[in-house]
Amino acid sequence: MPFNKDSKQEYELADNKADAERGDDGSQSDQSCPIRCLRKTWELFKKDLLLYLTILGVIVGMILGFATRDKIDKEYIYIIEFPGDMLLRILKMLILPLITLSLISGVSSLDTSASGKMGSRALLYYFGTTVLASILGIACVFVIHPGDPAARGKGDEDPKKFEGTTVDALFDLLKNMFPNNIVQACFQQGKTKFTYREEPINYPNGTFKENEQIITNREEVFSTNMNVLGLIMFCICFAVMMTKMGERSRGLIVTINLVNDIIMKLVLFFMWYSPVGIAFLIWANVLKIDDMSIMAKTLGMYMITVLVGLFIHALVTLSGLYFLITRKNPFLFIKRLSTALVTAFGTASSTATLPLTFKCMEENNGIDPRVTHFVLPIGATVNMDGTALYEAVAAIFVAQMIEHPLDAGSVITICITAIAASVGAASIPSAGLVTMLLVFSAVGLPTDQISMLYTVDWFLDRFRTACNVLGDSFGAAIVQHLCIDELRKLDDQKAIEEGENITREGASDGLDGVVVNIDDGSKC
């Protein structure tokens, strides 16, 4: 029977494979299995090395904080906090180019109709989940009832006071969306400053107030915070107009995409420092707590209420919405996003976590970069589910503690103002405490009680930031699922254009060949 060449090669390959599985003496190697297991374990560990280092940083920071609470003087905390402050400064340094370039890159890769549909669906998702988060927070605080009048705090001696009305705050939000100087918006945002006079007033219900403050003048002043909303509006409009220009803007789009890729690589390079910075941030924050026992007794139930609400919103509301729309496993999605969630917990800033959110969404969850670059920067600014839930719980908790009566109208007001305040909250650590002044003032709660919440805000802020990042990420995945037809049409259109270009180039090459042959023939 003839022995063909192909059969011989198959036998040789089988023999080589068997030899590789045996030792030098032909016996089965006892070490091959453990070595393969160790190699596989290392590959898995190496793939998520930044995640494990970040978790280690959180654990080390907590251990060092509790171990050195009574051994380090308060005046030296700033030294411990310095490495963490450097991490925040590095991330904030990259926020401006990251937001502007990624947003322009994302919008310019879509046509006008696709970006319009994607934007409307993203905003509808953000608004809907924020409303659900606020309602859930109100339900949790009424069911658990954490406010105990016996645990009432004294508040600040010089409390912060909310200036203006809810309408003034909403007008400031709208004015910041359309800044009068786009360069100034990179480092300042506008705010209305008020001038008051005090005079006695008799209210129609018979109440008399001797020193009621009346607003006599309003003027716009600027604070040293980046006007993220204004930059987002400008970048979206700029990218839409650039897309409408067609081929004339092609060179600029390519340049912006290239610079955006460079910024992303730069951010990912600096993120390897984040485990160290996060450890020192948490260490310093633990040292700043004055009395751990008072915090646990007074605010323990309040913390439990907020955490229960956040976990229900993340694991039931958001996960359920994702499953109902996409029919995919939400917990596998969360697992692949874990690096970004841990970073959000460590930095307490959804904007600072944005680079890692891009990476996890695109590389681990397979979300189209055109969607992530368009949806995530908007979500990091306007989608604050955790903040809305937190502010609703805080307002009703304080009302319960000071025995302030709340009717149905007051509860609805808290829900609406918590949503509006969360949208206006900057995506920086503890920004929710500032906008909480608006919620408290809307229902007549004393703003000096907010000082009591500062004790645990550093801890709860990390959980609500992680919830915000998770909501942004689920939103991007849902928007991609809803816009998949538009994205495929864009891909098909691009493939057709590239095919036409190739055909046109081939035809021109063929004509050149014909001319050459004719010329050669004529010469002969």
Describe this structure in words.
By secondary structure, the chain is mainly α. 72% of the residues lie in helices and 6% in strands. It has 19 helices and two strands. The protein has a two-stranded antiparallel sheet. A hairpin with a 5-residue loop joins strand 1 and strand 2. Helix 3 packs parallel to helix 9, helix 4 crosses helix 9 and helix 5 runs parallel beside helix 15. The N terminus and C terminus are likely disordered.
> In which range does the helix fraction lie?
over 70%
Instruction: Give the ordered list of helices and strands.
Output: HHHHHHEEHHHHHHHHHHHHH
Tell me, what's the shape? globular
The counted number of beta strands is 2
Strand content: 5-15%
Distance separating the two termini: 60 Å
- Global structural class: mainly alpha
Query: Count of DSSP helices?
Result: 19
Rg on CA atoms, Å: 29 Å
Q: Which secondary structure elements does this structure contain, and how are they paired or packed?
A:
Blueprint: H1 5-21, H2 32-47, H3 49-67, H4 77-108, H5 112-144, H6 166-177, E1 189-202, E2 208-223, H7 228-244, H8 250-270, H9 274-288, H10 292-326, H11 330-336, H12 338-347, H13 354-364, H14 369-382, H15 385-401, H16 408-424, H17 431-442, H18 450-482, H19 484-523
